[in-house]
Amino acid sequence: MKNNIEPFRNSNAQRAWEKEEAYLRAEKKVKAIMGFYWHLASYVIVNLFLIILITTSGGRLFSFGTFSTAFFWGIGLAFHFMGVFGPSFFFGKHWEERKIKELMDKDANNWE
Q1: Residue 76: CA count within 13 A, CB half-sphere
Q2: Quick check: 66 and 51 in contact, CB under 8 A?
Q3: Exposure pattern of 17-36 as b/e (b: 16+ CB <10 Å)?
Q4: What one-character DSSP code corresponds to residue 61?
């Protein structure tokens, strides 16, 4: 007697699981984007406050000390941006393939 063991396949259960996974990924992405926007808002508010405080208490406006917090915090904010949106924000999906095709088409037109 031959054992014929088939894996359990329930397409409705599989689709429901895939939908839940997609929902959880989307929810995680939305929370990451929201976290970045809160980070950006606090960056702007705190640094404006610090710059105003420094200049009104006798500090020079155009000195490194006035903008040092904004500068170094801005580096961290840029890394946060790249972590949330990634390099695809600047180049888009499949940018490299489109650029190669564009250059090949341009090269082919030059030979004709």
Answers
A1: 9
A2: yes
A3: eeeeeeeeeeeeeeeeeeeb
A4: S
CA angle 84, 87, 91 (to 5 degrees): 135
Alpha helices in 1-112 (DSSP H): 11-56, 64-85, 88-91, 95-111
Q: Which residues contact 81 (CB under 8 A, 6 or more apart)?
A: 36, 89
Q: What is the CA radius of gyration of the chain?
A: 26
pTM of the model: 0.67
Contact 59, 65 (CB under 8 A): yes
How many Cα atoms are found within 13 Å in the side-chain-facing hemisphere of 3? 2
**What is d(CA 107, CA 49) in angstroms, rounded to the nearest whole number?**
54
Is the separation of the CB atoms in 54 and 65 below 8 Å?
yes
Backbone angles phi, psi at 2, to 5 degrees: -100, 130
Tell me the pLDDT tens digit for each residue of 77-100.
Answer: 999 999 998 877 777 777 778 888
